[in-house]
Amino acid sequence: MSAWVDQSRVIRFEGPAAFSPRFVGPPVLRWAPVPAATRFEVAVADRERVVWTGSFPTEAADLAEAWPLLPLGPVDVLVRGFDGEREVAVRKHRQFWKVPGFDGVRPAPADWTGAVHRAVGYLLQPARDEVDGYEDGYPRSAWSSFEDTVTGLRGRLAFPAQHHASYIHAYLTYADRFPDHPQAAEAERQALEYGRWLLEHRLPDDWRLGGLSPSTVLEGGFGGWVEGDHVTVFRAARVGEVMLRLFARTGDSRYLDRAARIGDVMVDLQNPDGSWPFRVDPRTGEPSIGYTSAVVTPLWLLTLLGELPDAPGTAQQRAAAAAKGEAWLLAGPVADGRWEGMYEDIPETPPWSNLQHWDTNETIRYLLSGRCDVPDRVALAARLNAYIEDQFVVWAPEESPVPPHCPTPTVLEQYRCYWPMEVHTGHWLVSLLTLHRSTGDDRYLDRAVAAANAIVAGQDEQGSLSTWGLDTRFGTRLVTMDWPGCNAVAVTALLHWSAYVDALSDPAAELGPAFESL
Q1: What are phi and psi of 451, to 5 degrees?
Q2: CATH number of the domain residue 35 falls in
Q3: What is the average per-residue pLDDT within 174-199?
Q4: Which of 77, 255, 274, 471 could join 328 in a cystine, given CB atoms 3.0 to 4.6 angstroms apart?
């Protein structure tokens, strides 16, 4: 808007509903204060006409009364500010879509275990395109995050701090669940190879983040694309967690030492308020992007280190950092809903404009893990799940900005990448599992069966799980440039889920760990 406009009179949406493309339930729209206005008139229209109007004395409008009057599809909202009868604010219009929710029907279970075996077989395969010298015998995705499933052509860009951890979790969980399967030994071998990659490819020791793994590599070198020569801080904590898992597996102290080093860096980089910066210069630790909601990742690593009495470093400092991080998390995104600042391939965005839910799912599982002593933690976890289900779950075929017509229910990634993905359906599946274990509410079980089925429905004849969503109109994928690391998360989710379902049918069985890692 032109600089001559008095910005104090401009209606500007803010808060969790400010940029949402679609809603299952009625939103509460909020906007910045307009001192000149004493009341606001809000009109809500469907495709043809205004169906509801309301008058509000403050900068918020609850659309609960309007919602039953609206059909599914596009919704337009006009907000105007008045002082008496005189319009004194620059009015604001926005459009979003009303979309369907869950129909409450639990489908018959798909063959989840068979799908896992096929998917692991696909992930363990060697490269089908040219192998560069810098790949040095590592698994095919060590230097590549995405590949064309049809041709085997790989992109030479990778996010190792994110995806290598995913492979390690998937392969070790698979080998544990099916130790006698012919693929189990190769799965364990490749998990250790990804662990070796993370040990051997590290930032220089004289940097402030020295010893940590890079979060982006391009064509065999550190850095690249959106991050340039900077790194995403909280991804290192994800690496620290798998280092602890590899230490427990092998007894190799190098893994424990690396996890402890990462924990020390997390303590060093924590902000005074308990949060962590999103993206930093690894030489100096100076942030290039400040805000991220992903506090649960370093919080979880510090918690795990605190449970190891022999971990190198200062336990008291880690415990204090974890406590500060938990307090910030509960007072920050858990309370205000600003879940953003997650992905290495996204530049800085204005507040509220690119909400996502990866760490929301992890926070649900943290709240219910037994490590978080908050009296209303079950209710908080349920509220966070409701946010995910409203903003990111595609429950049924819908008219909206979502590109493919996909098997449902499936889960979208973020506002800036509004595609249904197996990785996010997997994260939500495990959150549903955790909520069911904590509450016994079978409505979570109904949703989880449907979500697991949707992941399996996207599998192709090679065994790969669709990152970008099978389109049910074409019977195939619109985009075949899939992300094997995202497949790996979905595999781990299906492993946790199928084990949980088996345990439900056996009264003597344990219902699994309190925090399933993906």
Answers
A1: -65, -45
A2: 2.60.40
A3: 98
A4: 274
